[in-house]
Amino acid sequence: MDAAADDAALAARLAREAGRLLLDIQAAGKFTGKALGAEGDAAANRLLCAALRAERPDDGLLSEESRDTPERLEKRRVWIVDPVDGTREYGEARTDWAVHVGLAIDGVASVGAVALPGLDLVLRTDKLAPVPTRDGAPRIVISRSRPPAEADRVAAALGAVLVPMGSAGAKAMAVVRGEAEIYLHSGGQFEWDSCAPVAVALAHGLHCSRLDGSPLRYNQADLYMPDLLICRVELAERVLELLAA
């Protein structure tokens, strides 16, 4: 097994294990709502960080639920994880939440896995399937809580349908799975929100960029990422034109 495949297998295994742990915590019924989200975040973070430190001790590590340190900036390889992407949806026992385990190499989202535990799915960079196609109006997945104003303009021009959905990982994987054609976000995110989803989307041949078309960069000193576009390649030029207008 080459290094990339070995890293992808590790990412997928850990994302699945964290997802199973989160479902077990949910099923136990000891916590609900925000308390469930907090408990799940903490437990999944312990699992992921302990495993990555044990199995990839020379790599950097960045997690939403752990204190950031500057040492990662000196590393070429940095694991970027979100133990529960969509904590609100997890706390509501919905299915549109995810576990992200991504690896950025030289600032590029290169390897990773996104688990959708509520759907018993793990999408990964080393096991690919053709992205399904469909006829009809394009579908744009947008945030449930912060729908971007730009999406209205793009939808009107393309005759597209807006589909509110939970976590960033769930929205990105909806495009990978052929349940939508465009994921457009402008409300601000952080590196852990998109590293693993972007790695998986790129591996499946999708377009991934900022809304101005510039590349997405990871393992930066400033973790804030203002906006994101993931879409089918054949739609990218038109969407970027509309966003620039």
TrEMBL record:
- Superkingdom, natural source: Bacteria
For this UniProt entry, the molecular function terms from Gene Ontology, in alphabetical order, are: 3'(2'),5'-bisphosphate nucleotidase activity
Q: What class of enzyme is it?
A: hydrolase
Record key words, sorted = Hydrolase
**What InterPro entries does this protein's entry cite?**
CysQ/Inositol_MonoPase, Inositol_monophosphatase-like
The Enzyme Commission number assigned here is: 3.1.3.7
Gene3D superfamilies (UniProt xref)? 3.40.190.80, Fructose-1,6-Bisphosphatase, subunit A, domain 1
Q: What is this protein called?
A: 3'(2'),5'-bisphosphate nucleotidase CysQ
Source organism (scientific name) = Novosphingobium tardum
